[in-house]
Design brief:
The chain is α/β, with parallel strands linked by helices. The chain is built from eight helices and eight strands, in the order βαβαβαβαβαβαβαβα. Strand 4, helix 4 and strand 5 form a beta-alpha-beta unit. The mean pLDDT is 96. Bound molecules: NADP nicotinamide-adenine-dinucleotide phosphate. NADP nicotinamide-adenine-dinucleotide phosphate binds next to helix 1 and helix 4.
Length: 235
């Protein structure tokens, strides 16, 4: 088994979403590397999480590195940087991604109107990622609808995760990863379908304001079989 096997890099893991995800994965016993543009910033975030991992006697490990070194050392690379820096970051780490799974969490928000769906001309952030990294990388997208504030907390997560990608095996690995981090996760189909979850985030941001909270999504009916009782015919 290679040294990278089972290691998860979270690029931009110093920020809102990535920090929460890295923390939950390390606490669940996974080997995590936080990536950053600055190795020192990543090391500081990893030290904070590492202290909690130690305190709770988790078997997980966490360290920090610059984004490229983090991607090189992992078999699964999670991208958690703002949409505006998605392309640049992927270009920088592209050589380290070949043959691996890239989990892109990017929601293509265009400030200031983040409560409005504004999908990019390419169709989705997922499509942009696949175009940049090429066919040698299994791109999977997930976590679009999870509130970072909740992810960073110790609260039980009620928000489900939809996972998209053209490789069923890669999707399955990410479903398992999300479950390890404490969420229910579901296969959402091909990478083309990612646009739906990316768009939904603007709806949730709007609802957060409207209803003052951290809204999320919950999938119902999965695994209950396809047969429903037909309504009784009226005489
Ligand atoms: N926040 C949420 O609730 C949420 C929910 C679902 C999905 N998402 C998605 O997750 C991604 C990250 O969101 P976030 O709220 O966690 O973002 P964030 O905290 O603003 O930024 C995350 C990290 O990205 C890096 N970064 C910032 N500007 C950059 C730049 N110009 N170039 C390269 N790296 C840069 C920074 O890391 P370093 O300074 O250490 O390099 C930062 O800590 C976004 O694509 C977002 O759409 C977020």
């Amino acid at each position: 088994m290679s040294e990278q096997q089972g290691v998860i890099a979270v690029l931009g893991g110093t920020g809102n979403l990535g920090y929460g995800l890295a923390r939950r994965l390390a606490l669940a016993g996974r080997n995590v590397i936080i990536g950053s543009r600055t190795a020192e910033k990543a090391e500081a975030a990893a030290a904070e999480i590492g202290a909690v991992v130690k305190e709770r006697n988790s078997k997980g490990s966490i360290r920090g590195a610059d984004n490229l070194a983090a991607a090189q050392a992992a078999s699964i690379v999670v991208l958690t940087v703002p949409f505006a820096s998605q392309a640049d970051t992927l270009q920088q780490v592209k050589p380290a991604l070949q043959g691996k799974i890239l989990v892109d969490t990017t929601v293509p928000l265009v400030p200031p109107k983040v409560m409005r769906v504004q999908l990019p001309a390419q169709g989705s952030a997922a499509k942009i990622a696949q175009d940049i990294v090429g066919e040698g990388v299994k791109v999977v997208t997930a976590f679009h609808n999870v509130a970072a504030d909740l992810l960073r907390s110790d609260e039980e997560l009620e928000c489900d995760v939809l996972v998209f990608g053209d490789s069923k095996d890669a999707r399955s690995e990410v479903v398992t990863l999300a479950e390890a981090a404490g969420m229910r996760a579901f296969h959402g189909g091909s990478l083309d379908n990612s646009a739906a979850a990316e768009a939904l985030t603007s709806v949730l941001i709007f609802m957060n304001k409207q209803y003052s909270g951290h809204t999320g999504i919950r999938i119902t009916g999965a695994g209950q079989g396809g047969n429903v009782a037909a309504p009784a015919k009226s005489a």
